[in-house]
Structure formats: structure tokens, C-alpha cells
Write a structure and sequence with these properties.
alpha/beta, single chain, disordered C terminus, globular
Length: 124
Amino acid sequence: MSVITLDELKQQLDAGAPLTLVEVLAPHAYREAHLPGAINLPVLGLRHMAEAMLPDKQATIVVYCYNARCGSSAKAARVLGELGYANVREFRDGKEAWIAAGYPVEGEAMPAALAASSVEQHPH
């Protein structure tokens, strides 16, 4: 398993590189905010759902969780490797680093800066 850095991941996504982003956190965390285009495959159900959700075992798959302390992305990468996936990379710094860098996310939560500016523009 190899690690992909924040800068490398951003460059690959911007270039349209063929990769599958997989958030391995629980569904509620995914719904709140996830990297653009990511699918949700919680680490707890990974062994049972991987083949249906990730049919191409040669595809480049980037797994991530919340941050480097989380550990779920390392576990997911290990499990996918055991299942025969050949090109799994771990984005160890995770969603926290992505958001801290100011990169866009998808989901139900608004970034704090946007939430603050909308409150200022539209007082209750």
C-alpha cells in the first residue's frame, strides 16, 4: 500500500486522473461532507460490499477517513489489498486536511466560513 499526499491527490483530481475516492467513515459523516466525487464504503462493511461497489480490482482506489489519527483508511487499504485490489493508495491526512486547505467538499454541511458569511448577510 502506498500513501498519497494532499498535494498529489489535488493535482491528480484537477488533472482528471482516473481514480476512485472512497470515504471509509460512517454514512452520517459522509453525508455531512466528503471529497468531491467520493463514494462511501464504511470500513466496517468493506469486506462485504467491496466487490459490488468496486468491481475493477486494477483501478486506482484512494481511501481516506477523517485524519491521520483515525486509522480507518489504513485498515481499509489493508483489507482491500487482501481482497486482491492492486492499486490502493491511502490519503492518510484525510478529510480534515482537505477542508483545512480550503478545497471544496460535497455534502449537507456548509463550511464554517460560508456559514458565517451567510449569517452576516441574512440576519435572523
